[in-house]
Amino acid sequence: MKKYIVAPSILTANFLELKSDLDKLKKAKIKWIHYDVMDYNFVPNLSFGPKILSDIVNNYDFKMDLHLMVKIVGFSVEDYLKPFIQKNVKQVTMHYEALNKKQLIDFIKFCKKNNINASLSINPNTEINKIKKYLPNLQNILVMSVNPGFGGQSFIKKSLDKIRLLNEIRNTNNYQYLIQVDGGINEDTYKSVQEAGVDMIVAGSYLVDSKIKNLEERISKLEG
């Protein structure tokens, strides 16, 4: 039976109690943390930067899955990303919609140079054919099942068609990328993304909330 990678998003954490939330995830044997970076440019919100990332990786052994919802302006891709390339950063995702063609190619090259998974994300209104030519050079595709920028949104069902299509393209061409989904994952939606063909599931409020009493049970469901 297939096992799924689960990456809790700490975007929904109470930042005054972030250590407590991370301790709970560690106790529940979580291996990956999804780290959302937002710039109030590509998305209308602000979140973490390199400093909080440094504090986490210097105190925990989580594999870090960085999701950069940002536009790179006034920097080279390399100069912008360098501060984020820290211990245990295993994967970096950038948005297709936020990059020009040169930046996208530079991003893939940067990840290869630093031995990090190059991951490309697409928004709910972006079709798969927009990124098709990049698929052979990517290690992960992140399908946004909500509009990026805020936690706690409802799952957009048409995202399942994208996951199925990415799975079909992968199987047909023997590509090696993983398929990841982010947004609206909860008790009502997790099975549908598993059945559609994802490999990695990001969940925010379903896993990171001080009121949760059955965290291990929820993680077990997502893992399959």
Automatic annotation (TrEMBL):
Top-rank taxon: Bacteria
Catalytic activity, as annotated: D-ribulose 5-phosphate = D-xylulose 5-phosphate
Record-listed E.C. numbers: 5.1.3.1
Biological processes, Gene Ontology terms: carbohydrate metabolic process; pentose-phosphate shunt
Keywords: Carbohydrate metabolism, Iron, Isomerase, Manganese, Metal-binding, Zinc
Record CDD domains: RPE
Pfam families the record matches: Ribul_P_3_epim
InterPro entries: Aldolase_TIM, Ribul_P_3_epim, Ribul_P_3_epim-like, RibuloseP-bd_barrel
Cofactor(s) the protein requires to work: Co(2+); Zn(2+); Fe(2+); Mn(2+)
GO molecular function: D-ribulose-phosphate 3-epimerase activity; metal ion binding
Gene3D superfamilies xrefs: Aldolase class I
Enzyme class: isomerase
Family: Belongs to the ribulose-phosphate 3-epimerase family.
Subunit structure: Homodimer.
This protein's name: Ribulose-phosphate 3-epimerase
Provenance organism: Spiroplasma floricola 23-6
